[in-house]
Amino acid sequence: MLLIHCPHCGPRNETEFTNGGPARSTRPEDATHLTDAAWVDYLTVPNNPMGWVQEKWWHNRGCGMWFTIERNTVTHQIQQAPDHVG
User: Which residues contact 67 (CB under 8 A, 6 or more apart)?
Assistant: First the structure.
């Protein structure tokens, strides 16, 4: 079980949250210059690195807030929970 720190509600059980996936890089400035394959990759293929990643989480069974945490994908340890909406 993960204990996730919601910036609004404090520490809560992971069952109260929905993982929104990795925090994305910025959207391509001019998508018209991307090939169809590159655009599909941007939209549908998330990075799946081993180690520390920033992820979006939604407190769907709590305050309803979206926020970003940094989590180790190998150990599931949460290193930080920024107090800003991501």
Answer: 6, 7, 56, 57, 59, 81, 82, 83, 84, 85, 86
pTM over 0.70: yes
The CATH number of whichever domain residue 39 belongs to comes to: 3.30.2270.10
- Flag the least confident range among 37-46, 55-64, 77-86: 77-86
Gap between the Cα atoms of 38 and 64, Å rounded: 33
Question: How many domains is the chain built from?
Answer: 1
Among 44, 22, 11, 31, residue whose Cα is nearest residue 1? 11
